[in-house]
């Protein structure tokens, strides 16, 4: 088995402050979490197919992911732990396994919509039984149209993906 080595390091205070300012402006609720701007965040670089994603840690907790294209989102577990006010869709139990494996969220699998969103907005996907966040995605249409046939949310981060596995196996 090939062992992939991840690079982990601290940002400078200036770099951390810039990232925190960006997170506050792009992600709802981050202003409550990142009130202190004079902190140094840690970075875990995760090699993907052709590029590198970055996972940012506050103390030992992963809180943000920056994709190679520059998109900044909260880490999956941070959504619930930090109680971020991100719109949610509740999916039926039959949709959980495919979504948790990376499938996009289709309208017919959505049981209910909590909050409102527009195309391009970040949306959390939760299962109907225990209401746990199983994926984060980008809305492909409005919350009013969410239950219609076709793709509603493009899955961009889920439990078990490469970023999730890198954080789980990083022992530091």
Brief characterization of the structure:
With 172 residues, the chain is α+β, with helices and mostly antiparallel strands. It has 5 helices and 11 strands, in the order βααββββαβαβββββα.
Which key phrases capture this entry?
six-stranded mixed β-sheet; globular
Alpha carbon gyration radius: 16 Å
Note the run of SSEs as H and E: EHHEEEEHEHEEEEEH
**Beta strand %:** 25-35%
Shape category: globular
Number of helices: 5
Task: Summarize the SSE layout with pairings.
Blueprint: E1 7-10, H1 13-26, H2 30-33, E2 42-47, E3 52-58, E4 61-66, E5 72-74, H3 76-81, E6 88-91, H4 93-100, E7 105-106, E8 110-114, E9 122-127, E10 133-139, E11 151-158, H5 162-169
Description of the molecule:
- The chain has 172 residues and is an alpha+beta fold.
- 23% of the residues lie in helices and 34% in strands.
- The chain is built from five helices and eleven strands; from the N terminus they run βααββββαβαβββββα.
- It has helices at residues 13-26, 30-33, 76-81, 93-100, 162-169; strands at 7-10, 42-47, 52-58, 61-66, 72-74, 88-91, 105-106, 110-114, 122-127, 133-139, 151-158.
- The strands form two sheets. It has a six-stranded mixed beta sheet with strand order 7-11-10-9-6-8.
- The longest helix has 14 residues, at 13-26.
């Amino acid at each position: 088995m090939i062992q992939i080595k991840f690079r982990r390091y601290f940002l400078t205070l200036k770099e951390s402050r810039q990232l925190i300012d960006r997170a506050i402006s792009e992600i709802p609720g981050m202003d409550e979490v990142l009130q202190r701007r004079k902190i140094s965040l840690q970075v875990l670089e995760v090699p993907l197919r052709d590029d590198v994603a970055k996972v940012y840690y506050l103390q030992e907790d992963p809180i943000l992911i920056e994709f190679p294209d520059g998109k900044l989102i909260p880490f999956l577990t941070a959504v619930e732990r930090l109680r971020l006010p991100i719109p949610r869709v509740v999916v039926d139990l039959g949709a959980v396994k495919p979504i948790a494996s990376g499938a996009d969220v289709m309208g017919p699998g959505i049981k209910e919509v909590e909050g409102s969103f527009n195309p391009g907005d970040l949306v959390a996907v939760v299962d109907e039984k225990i209401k746990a966040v199983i994926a984060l995605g980008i809305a492909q249409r409005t919350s009013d149209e969410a239950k219609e046939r076709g793709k509603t949310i493009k899955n961009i981060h889920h439990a078990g993906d490469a970023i999730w596995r890198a954080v789980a196996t990083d022992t530091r």
